[in-house]
Amino acid sequence: SQTIHQWPATLVQPVGSPLSLECTVEGTSNPNLYWYRQAAGRGLQLLFYSVGIGQISSEVPQNLSASRPQDRQFILSSKKLLLSDSGFYLCAWRHIRHTEAFFGQGTRLTVV
Amino acid sequence: SQQGEEDPQALSIQEGENATMNCSYKTSINNLQWYRQNSGRGLVHLILIRSNEREKHSGRLRVTLDTSKKSSSLLITASRAADTASYFCATDADAGNMLTFGGGTRLMVKP
Questions:
Q1: Beta pairing, strands A32-38 & A10-13
Q2: What is the rounded distance in angstroms from the CA atom of residue B84 to the CA atom of residue B102?
Q3: What is the pLDDT of residue B33?
Q4: How far is B106 from chain A (nearest CA, A)?
Q5: Cα angle A34-A31-B43, degrees, rounded to a multiple of 5
Q6: Which of A93, B46, B67, B98 is the most exposed place for a label (fewest CB within 10 A)?
Q7: What is the mean pLDDT of residues A19-45?
Q8: Is the predicted pLDDT of residue A61 greater than 70, yes or no?
């Protein structure tokens, strides 16, 4: 069976520090991968998605970036965090487009 | 950008009552999906309805889709306290790989 791992669960980082959130999927190959951000009590904002290794589509221009160095690994990064980067970050995968998505448990990031 | 918008934003009902949530969207879709999120957790897929379908059932869930009005509804029948969560619709466009979520409905079911 397929599983998705996302870590860490919580993170407190100072303004201006770098960020690296990792997401890995097991039990499948060539998944579509997604990074979302959720502000408190709000909906999900699509940040990045990837349909293959090295292929990244960005939906929101900001100081975040994403990379897919391996088939089942998706990394969200920032060189310098801003206060506005605080939020709940969710990684998701699905087999192909037009199917259901499976979510990780999320990372709550607080920038102080 | 958010494609789907849920209505109401919050809903409070008694156990045993039915809960209806609505979703409106703007562009052409391949399918529309509903997800559930318990507080502070990841989302869990509930049901997917394709653009050529009008109604779908899964247990106590009933979803309708009206592509002419670009709207969908999720009905939870005989609600339980355990149904307390946030519910999101997500639109899956015909073109591309984006899955775009709305703002969600926070449902509270009182025992």
A1: unpaired
A2: 18
A3: 97
A4: 9
A5: 45
A6: B67
A7: 93
A8: no
